[in-house]
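User: Okay, second chain of the day. Same drill as before: sequence in, structure tokens out.
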Amino acid sequence: MASCRRPRCSLSPVRYTARMTLRALQVWFALLVAAFLNGTFREVVLAPRFGVLRSNQFSVVLLCILILVIAFASIRWIAPATIRDAATIGGLWLVLTLIFEFGFGRLRGTPWSVLLHDYNLLAGRLWIFVLVVTLAAPYVAMRARHVAG
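Assistant: Same drill. Structure tokens below.
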């Protein structure tokens, strides 16, 4: 049996990749929960005090921080062995996020114009940064954990 790419690992490359992917999926569900809690906080606490645009902007920054914290806390458990693994995890998280966002929105009957509104930087909407952070978080966390030891 071939060994995986990580030192002291007895899994085959296929089993290693499957385990890493399953763990990445589990962490994405944690990201989903964090996003729901963040959205609830935005609607219940922030929006009544600061209005829709400012509460959305604050919420985006908060969610980006949460994504990075969760990625940093979980990256050793997910155990990407290479930069390519980390990039693959980020890509998986990004695709799942977009499928959930647009799929759920369309199932609820939300028009495309409303779904795409949060991507309008000229209108002060910052959602695109959540997607960039989601994509980059596993790589950033892997690099930060590697430097931190």
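The helical segments are 13-50, 52-78, 83-107, 112-117, 127-148.

User: Thanks, on to the next one.
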